Description:
The protein is α+β, with helices and mostly antiparallel strands and about 210 residues long. The protein contains six helices and ten strands, in the order E-H-E-E-E-E-H-E-E-E-H-H-E-E-H-H. The longest helix has 16 residues, at about 120-135.
Amino acid sequence: MYVPEHFAERRVPVLHAAIRRIGFATLVTAGAQGIEASHVPLLLDPEPAPLGTLLGHIARENPQARHAGDGEVLAIFLGANAYVSPSWYPSKATSGSRVVPTWNYAAVHAYGPVAFFEDAARLEALVTRLTALHEAGRPAPWSVADAPRDYLAAMLKAIVGFAIPITRLEGKWKMSQNRPPGDRAGVAAALHGLGASAVAAGVLGEGDPEPA
């Protein structure tokens, strides 16, 4: 990922927090069959430190598991993002309209080798954790234990799990840092008006941008 210095985010705790907050990634692999991608919910374990391990699963019928090979894979987490109009820049009035549109966004790229697994107990533990995470806070949270055992066993046979020990993390917080304060304020105000409050907060530096 191309990351100019003023957009770079390198703090591992911040990148980990964004991964957990977003929770959904594009898994990209490149093998003998070419480049393949799947869109999957992922868990982040903090070990091994300092970068941790990503855990997820894909359908057994998905050929990506057979084609991934032994090389590096990439998980892309895209957070809050929004179009930015040059009309929002107060400096447009004094710059002779030497401004162009752009797009603000937050993204994390996690790289590492992938290992697929089919062990039923390990798969059940994984889907139980994923379900508990996303059901938390609901009035009547559903649990994997609510499913009949025979049905659950059949569903587990239909997936394969994977683990990606992270070897490299990249973060890009492109939030108008290259614009003067007045332009950033104009962008934030316009984004707030459009309901893109997470990106607006990122532009103002009020905490890390939330996922869209």
